Amino acid sequence: MSYFETGVKQLEGEYRGGFKQGLWTLYYEEGQKNREELHTSGSSEVKWTAWRSDGQVWAEGVLVGQRAQGPYSEWHPNGVLAAQGLYEEGKQTGPWSYWNTQGQPSGDPQGDFAKE
């Protein structure tokens, strides 16, 4: 376990054989859950879910060796799905779907992709 200078928990998880193992939870400095990561022994794959500081889910996906790989989903701050698609070796691949804040399909990138 690790703590911010204020005494609030920063992260918790377990190491085995010098590697992260099982569920790791990271927190915002205010104490809310920021991110969960699931580390599997003997694998470089990490499944993760991230939350906004208000507790709303922000995104989830998979990393392999620090690169995005496989399914990815992202939500607008109001909880409506914003983007969904696949990554291959850190790059978007195949068809991606986007929805506006009302949940209607959008041809324009939404969520963090709208900022690029």
Automatic annotation (TrEMBL):
InterPro entries: MORN_2. Pfam families: MORN_2. Residues 93-116 are annotated as: Disordered. Residues 94-107 have a biased composition (Polar residues). It comes from the Bacteria. Coiled coil: none annotated. This is MORN repeat variant. It comes from Stigmatella ashevillensis.
